[in-house]
Amino acid sequence: MAAGKIVGYAVKYGVKYGPHLVVAAKALKEPATAYAQAKLAEQRERKAALAEAATLQAGTVLKVFHDTHPVWVVYAGEDPVSAHPAVPVPLATLVERADLTQRMRPEDVPAVKDRVVAGNDTATAKARKVVKRDR
User: Fold this and answer.
1) What are phi and psi of 65, to 5 degrees?
2) Phi-psi domain of 60 (left: phi exceeds 0; alpha: psi -120 through 50; beta: other)
3) CB 56 within 8 Å of CB 73
4) Residues in contact with 50: Cβ distance below 8 Å, sequence separation at least 6, in sequence order
5) In this predicted model, what pLDDT tens digit does every residue of 102-118 receive, in sequence order?
6) CA nearest 47: which of 12, 81, 72?
7) Are 94 and 73 in contact (CB under 8 A)?
8) pTM as predicted
9) 12-22 confidence digits (pLDDT tens)
10) CA torsion sign, 34 to 37 to 42 to 43?
11) Ranges assigned E (strand) in the chain
């Protein structure tokens, strides 16, 4: 009997709200796709910058912003070598106000797997803290 009620509610609300969901999905599809593609492009540029820095002697990477978009500047020692993605601004202008202490060596950057595990650990710790508080 409970399964029948669930199916009944699903049909009732599906008929009532289904058309609204279809319109919303169509309206939000393109912006969501554009946002996802932009994020993937940022990750590709970051990965390319880290790969280039790994091939250089004393190679490091610095994240700066140009027109609200992240740009990864690759350094060889103390000299900026290239930018990912390429921007029409000279590298010296791009990094003139940047905090150079924020540069990262490619071997110090955690892998995706390590970042996910660290995020799960913090989420697990928070959940345990909440459970202990409720007891």
Assistant:
1) -120, 140
2) beta
3) no
4) 61, 72, 106, 109
5) 999 999 887 777 766 77
6) 72
7) yes
8) 0.68
9) 888 888 888 88
10) positive
11) 59-66, 69-76, 79-84
